[in-house]
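Format is sequence with structure; example below:
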Amino acid sequence: MAIKRLRRTRRHSDGVRGMFVEGRATTNGFDGHVNYRLKLLLVFTIFSAAVFLLWGDFGTEGRYNSGANIFGDIPSNHLEESLLLERQRTGGSKPHGVALEKRPVDPLSKADNHEETSSESDAKPPSDPGQGIRSTEAAGEGTGSNSGKGENATIPVPNDPLLDEHTSGNSTGSSGQDSDKPQEDLEYKYVTEQEYVWAPAEGGLSGHRCFTMGKKGDKACLFNPLCFDTRSMEFMTVQGALQCFGSHHTADWLPNNCENIKKDAISDSNFVAIGEKSRAWLAESESRGEVLWVPGTSVIQKHQISSGNIAHFAGRILYTHHLIANINSYAGVADSLANVLIWPGVDTLKRFADPEKYGFWHQKVFEAVAYPHPVSITTLDKFLDDIEKAKNEPHGNDNVRVHLMDTAQSSREKFVCFERALIPGYLKGRFFIRDPEYPSSESSTMKMTMEPHLPRDSIKFRAQISEALGRRRALTQPKRKILLLDRAQAAASRRSIEPASKESLKSLVARVADDNGFAFEVVVFDGIPITEQEEIMKDAAIAIGVHGANLVNSIFQPAWTVVLELMPYGFDHEMYEEGGGAGLKYFKHHVLTGVEYEQRGKYASTEECVRKDVKCKVHYRDHSVALTKEDLDGIAGFLDQSFTWLESAVELGLIGYQE
C-alpha cells in the first residue's frame, strides 16, 4: 500500500524545520528570503559532503591513512553515487579544540545478554565545580594535538556556566510524550561544538596522560611506559609527569582533579592496581637484563565476568575501537599502533573458544573492531616470543598484532615494559563517543548542527562489521520495514510483554505499518548467529523493543533510522538513546502502570528506591510489561512521529529506501 502522506503534510514541513538547531537553540529555519527548496538543497549538499568524506576512506588518520576505499565502488545511495564521481579527496578537515597555551608542537605529536547488572551501568558522572569551555578555531589553522602545523595558536577561553551533568538514569519518568526531542536538549546542552580540552604530549617516555570523555566521564590513560612483572602479573608505571584532558570540563578543573581521574581510570579498566616505580628502578632492571621492551603503542584492555553479557562487552570493546580509530590523537605519535591486547577473563574467553555456541557475537564484533588486522588467541609466552623475534622489524598501523590473551601466566622471569600503553575503561550508557569530544583531522557530520548526531566512530564500525561478516552494505539504505524485537519463550519471565498486551501491540504495529506501505516482522534473536542478526537489523527503518538485550543490535541499524524503546514501569535508563549513540532517531515510551516494589514505601519516590536499593532496581527493570490503552495510544503517537521523521529524512537525502 502506498505511503499516506497527505494527512501529514503540515507536520512534515514543521518536522523538517524543527530538526535543525543553531547553537543548540531551535530556530525558524534559514533566512526567510531564501526559497524553501533551496534550503533543502543546501542542507542536502552539506550532509552529503560530510558523510561521504568519512564513508569514502575513513579520513586521513590512523590505519586508513593510505586513502584506500574499503568499500570499492559501492555507494550507499544514489546521492553518494553522484558525489563519488565528482569528489576529489584532498584531505580531512582541520582538527579543532582549545590549546592550553602557545608553545611548539611536541616532536612526538606531529601527526595528527544485556542486563544492567553491574556498576558499569550505573556509574555516576564526576563532580565538576568548574565552568564550561567555549573554544574556536584559529584563523587558517587547526588546533589540537595532531594538527601538525607548527605552533598551536593561543585560543581565548571565556568562562561559560557548565550546565548540569546527569547520572545514568534509573529514574521514573512521564509517559515519554516529549521524547522525540533529543535527550541532550532535555537534560544537557553542549557548551559548544568544540568542547574538548587537549594539548600536545609532553614528557616523552616519562609522561603519562589520562582522559575523561563525555558527560559521564568515560576514562582512559596513556602510560609512558607501563610495565608488569611476569611472575606476579603486577602492573606498574614509572614516575613521570601526569596531564589530564578530555571533554565537558574546563582547563582549570582537569589538572586540579587529575590524580582522581587517573585513579578512576585504573578502577574502570579492571586493573586491580597499578603501582609506581622510580626511573632509577627501571635503569637498574635494564642493566641486569631483566626488561623486555614492547615498542610502539599498545592498547591493553581487561574484561571481567560481566563482559559475557553483550552490552557490557560492547561498552568496553567499542571504547577500544575508538582508541584504535583515533590512535594519533591519544598516543601523540603518528602511526604508532603496534599491539591490541585483550585479557578477556575465563567467562568471556569461552565465547571465543566456542563461538558457535554463543552466536559468534563476541567474536565477530571484536573482529570488526580490529579490522583489517587478524585476531588470534595466544598465550603471554607466545606473545613475548614474537616480540623478541620482531625486535628489529618496523611496527605501525599497517602491522598490528591483535590478540586475545589466554589466562595462562608466563614461564619467564622478566619485567615487560610497553613503550606506550593505552588503558581504556568502558563507555557508560553509550557505545560511541561524539565527534566534538576529542580532536581529529577527519570530517564530521557535526557541521550539520542536527540531532541525532552521527559519530564518525559509528560510521566506521558499521563498515567494519560488514567487512568482518564478509559483505558490504550501504550506510543509509533501510527497507520499508518495522521490526518488533521480541524475547525467546525461555526468557519470557524477564522484561517480557505479557501475552495479551503483546497481541495488542502486534496488531497496532501491523496496522500502522500497512497504512504506511511498510512490512512488519516480529524478530527473536535468541539462537541465531550475529550474521543473521546484523542482516535483519540493517534492513530496519523502525525497531521497537523493551529495554534490554535486543536493543544492543540497534548499533547495526542504518544511520538516521528510528529506534522506539519501551521502558518498564518505574524504570529508566540511557543506554539505548540514539541507538547507544549510533546516530538513530530515538523515542522512548514509559509504560504507565505496573507492580510496585514491596518495599517502595520506605523511599520518597520510585526514583530514589531504584537508585538506592538494588533489589528495587531489579524489580522495576525486569518485571513483565502490561500495556494499557493509554500505552498503546502513546506508542501509536510515537510511530506517527517516526514516519514524519523518516519522510523528512528521505526528502533531505539522509536516507534512501532499498527497492
